[in-house]
Amino acid sequence: MLSPTLVPDLRYGYNRLIRASDAPPATQGFDLTKIGLPAPYNTLIPADIRRFPRIDLANYIGTGFTGENRLVDTHSFTAAATKSLGSHSIRGGIDFRSYRENDSFTSNDQTGRFNFDASYTHGPLSTSPTAPSTIG
After folding, report:
1. Domain boundaries, the chain
2. For position 83, what pLDDT does the model report?
3. SS3 state of residue 2
4. Contact present, 111 and 47 (Cβ < 8 Å)
């Protein structure tokens, strides 16, 4: 109490939400030479973003994924005061809120996307039929 007729009310609140998803830890910083890719290609991609590459086979589920690291902070501050004047009360104040969001995405596309489908097995023209669907 500042005086018998003036009562302040101060409040602060903080909330943090962390939403994080990524591929399994063994795929992070993956050494691409383990699956036969050349060492110069492996060193071109920084280890902190290098993942097991995306491999898409026609008619099969690929290895593509997208991860996310979202940090959401909310700060709230309220200041109010109540003043008594005889049989009346006057109340006033302010409310301040700050919403901050930092979001980053991860994927294995930056390591490379390797498609094994019929895109390059057409005949001499783009309208020619594709070769029989085989993998090998």
Report:
1. 6-120
2. 94
3. coil
4. no
Q: Tell me the β-bridge partners of 98.
A: 75
- CA nearest neighbour of 51 among 27, 71, 68, 22: 27
Task: Decide: helix, strand or coil at residue 129.
Answer: coil
Residues in Cβ contact with 33 at an 8 Å cutoff, skipping those fewer than 6 apart = 39, 42
What's the pLDDT score for residue 7?
Answer: 93
User: pLDDT at position 135, please?
Assistant: 52
CA 83 to chain centre: 48
Whole-number Å distance between alpha carbons of 56 and 51: 15
Q: What is the pLDDT of residues 37-72, one digit of tens each?
A: 999 999 999 988 888 898 888 888 888 888 888 999
